[in-house]
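hi support,

uploading two proteins for the ticket. first:
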Amino acid sequence: MLRVFVDSGSSIKQEEKEQYGVEIIPLRYLMGEEEYEDGLDITMDEFYCKLIDEKLFPQTSLPYLDKVEEAVTNYTNQGDDVLILTISSGISGTYSAFKTLFEGNGKVTVVDTQTAVAGVKLLVYEINRYRDQPLEVILEKVYALIPRIRVYAIPETLNYLFKGGRLSRTEWLLGGLLDIKPVITLAGGKVKVAEKKRGLKKTMKWIAEFFTSTVCTDYPVYASYTHSDENLKTLISMTDEKYHANMLFDDLDPVIACHWGPNAFGFIYVE
């Protein structure tokens, strides 16, 4: 039997794991003196209270590796194959840690998804389409889909991406000048600036038009946000209604919101 693990950077919630058919490995984050396991210890409202009201800048870290090893080997010891999807190695050390942890276990395959949040959800969606096929076929489908996944988002501020080391100082400085609103993407598994426009509405328009010209409607579209979905709804209104039925809203988990900051929003889809 195939068992699929994802880390919580996939933004698959604990209450959604049966729906997606996965086990969730919670990443960790530190706020002030307190450490939390993503999606387990505090609610989203409590997290944003600490982030916005208490102005605590979070730091993220790897999951408890002993817990991961125990959960995975429980399955492999009973003969199951385990497929672990991690968020991109370009933004997290999770992939490298898991590769090292399971390098001697031939029943475990660790995949660097080169994406994050709903990009991982799209890969799980693909796995579930072929779940009755051999692992080699499933991996072929996964690796074929990875380069087609697109992430385009607008953060309210670049401070969190910059302080978290996911954005260069030059990109951070440029984003703060002249009301320039950058479109942030994951390219080659790393955070990049895809486009820069002056003013929020022009930036939204660019995403809406680019999305419309490139989206593959055979897959869901994830409309993602942190804390507030007000701007996201405006962005959706700029696209043709024929795409709306295929859209799924996703309020990103704290460990990702730590880097995006509050009130970021965008689309994640298959090209």
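and the second one:
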Amino acid sequence: MLKKYWIHILSVGYSLSLAVASLVRINHDAILNIQFQDKILHFVAYAVLCLLAFFSFHVQNINKSIWYSVLFSLIFGIILELLQSVTPNVRVTDALDILANTLGILVMAFLLSWKKQTLVKKLQTFM
């Protein structure tokens, strides 16, 4: 039972960290000098968010946990992008960021639906 709380803590902690990282001033210099590095980071960050949300919903025995994790992740990402437009002189809303977020979420949802049984078994051994 206690391990379920760790999944929720990890999920909430990641969500809060992602929110803070999305709303604070960042250095625009590329770390690895990779083209579209920002979009790749958005893709990966929201794929991970969708995965953690799935785990949180699943351990609560919520039916359609993949669907709810997709919905949560999409709404969360859109709200953060819109909040960036009202934060003065820090960040700007970018439709391509929303697209990268959405693609990361959808790819993760596909992987989750494809490998759900394997992931659920591994999650159950963890708990």
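thanks. also noticed: DSSP finds four helices and no strands in the chain.
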